[in-house]
Protein 1
Amino acid sequence: MFDHIAQSVTYQKLKLDAPVTVTVTVKRLDQIHPQISGNKFFKLKYNFLDAKRQGLKKVLTFGGAYSNHIAATAYAAQLFGFESVGIIRGEELKDKALNHTLATAQQFGMQLYFVSREQYREKTDPVFLQQLQQHYPAHYIIPEGGTNTLAIQGCKEILTAEDQQNYDLICCAVGTGGTISGLIEASAEHQTVLGFSALKGNFLQHDVQQWTSKKNWQITDAYCCGGYAKTTPELLKFMQSFEAEQNLALEQVYTAKMMMGLMDLIQQNHFSPDTRILVMHTGGLQGRSTEQDQS
Ligand SMILES: *Cc1c(COP(=O)(O)O)cnc(C)c1O
């Protein structure tokens, strides 16, 4: 279902000025598919296969207004002949013009329901989920950001045997923690995985611990720029100069924050000399914007 639509991804080495001795290679998961891009491809793959195996032809999932997961799920659903429902955080959005992410999802046939932040918080409550499933008996329910056991199984496939051999440190952006959990599970013993959180707070440490018992990882929120989908003038400036210098597009919610953090740590000599760093470009370019204040 998924593998035949995957396009091959390339590795792009970043230009770094001496005296830096670490190397940074970007794994361009953004190239894997124009709509189901980056990590979302791996997160959705086994979920859709499981839905199909159960004979379900409808999916239901959750997301915020800037959720790449919502856009990717809507597209995948249409591609594979599923109906889709998206429960979106923010009742106030109901009466506003849809932003690019939500307009894209709707265009791909997703039915959007806007709920209050209080209602949205119930999305992980077992009783609520049971009621929801009763209400939507024919829908396969995928959690927020697509993170569940099947998503992590898919994300383990991001790291190849060569990736395990050729690099010492793996970096990725973190939202719900599914992608980094898969990378940690797939990482070799000599490797460390470093996550850059797009959200404020350290609850993600706890979330990721539920998915892996390994200890070779860290998550920092030092570069979250105030929180999810928030931006600072410094971030937007970094993003634009990085894109021009490296000829590599980023977006402001995840990958620009990660890259700004990584470049800062390199400047601070945070890593041992000659560390071979592999950075995941997790895609999300459909939501790229250089305008201030997304939230
Ligand atoms: C969703 C997303 C992430 C975060 O992935 P999680 O598995 O939720 O941590 C990172 N980068 C991009 C571009 C994304 O769209």
Note: Residues 38-39, 68-69, 145, 147, 173-180, 254-255, 282-284 surround pyridoxal-5'-phosphate (CB under 6 Å).
Protein 2
Amino acid sequence: MQSLESEESYVGNLYQRFPVSIIKGKGCKVWDTNGREYLDCMGGYGVALVGHCNDRVVQAITEQCHELITCHMSVYNEVRLRFLKKFNSIAPKNLQSTFFTNSGTEAVEAALKFSRKFTGKSGIIALNGGYHGKTFGSLSVTYNEKYRKSFLPLLEGVKFISYSEVESISEIVTRSESNIGTIIVEPIQGETGIIMPPPNFLKSIREICTAKGLVLIFDEIQSGLGRTGKMWAGQHWDVEPDIMCLAKGVAGGVPMGLATMRPEILNSLKIGEHSSTFAGNPLACAAGSAAIDALVEDGLVTNSEKVGKIFKDGLIKLKENHKIIRDVRGLGMMLGVEMRFDVKDILLDGINHGILLLYSGRNILRLLPPLVMNEEEVNKSLQLIEILIQKEEKRRFG
Ligand SMILES: *Cc1c(COP(=O)(O)O)cnc(C)c1O
């Protein structure tokens, strides 16, 4: 456990960290420096979407790194083209132009800039509870005060609304001083605790955006690529955005993000108005193609739906037997368990019991397991979570 203390002295204190040092991963499992095995329901924060060290991804990057690792967007590359064609075959049908980034927050930055250029309007509507990243532009549409307060002033003209205020959007947009051109939402809010939108919400904002000529951005960085049991979370409500942001698992664990959009939006920008040095590099594109192959050819989206349902049903059963669980929600492999208390001890105790879990806020357990998880691994996870909950009840009530 030497790496625990020594790493701390180099990287400051920016992350809520768990006392475990991971050196190996395969599928839904990871191993620490002592050879102890863990079921990874944290899924590398959602990045290990197609499983740790997915065979297809390992093979693709191994082959690619012998051919070409870097290749700027100013020159053409076949590996990139292969990814783009493959990606468009799974992308929402009207979103066929893509800007590559290297992370989620950069995908959101690009989306916000492109929408401003296309609409000529600087005002943005974002959602209470929304999370879109922590660079200045993304932070401006991220709701949590804790992330924002030390970095003001942020972008002007951002208006946060609650789900129930959807009716007031038209009125806000009509006020000329609001200058609204963009609405940005996560179809399902991840960071805030797996918050589902009211049934008609996404359809309503789609209609408003279409009627008023606003650009609708879906941040599917966490919910996209099969995570919720459909390729895109927006599909659960049959709604397609004008721009969609992706990152996290899009390249099987290799850093990559992208914003994909209606071509006229991307075409409204001129040469040099936005760029990124690493954008569309062949290593990430090779990994991205392999990750899409895994999703499509290995049936991972279907597995996410099927196994995710078993997982959720199991959690609902736990809720019936354990009063400290207040709510279970989510779709596919994007699940949240809201507790009546702080979940910190459960997470730490999870490490002792060989399971990695994630939190949302203080009292919500978030589960973002790899989509390759099988029924047996779900049942094992449920057993472990029940043990952790029983121990938490003992701690609370004796
Ligand atoms: C993780 C996440 C981001 C930020 O992505 P980074 O790669 O950490 O910048 C943005 N939006 C959502 C919905 C996310 O889950």
Note: The CA atoms of residues 188 and 358 lie 17 Å apart.
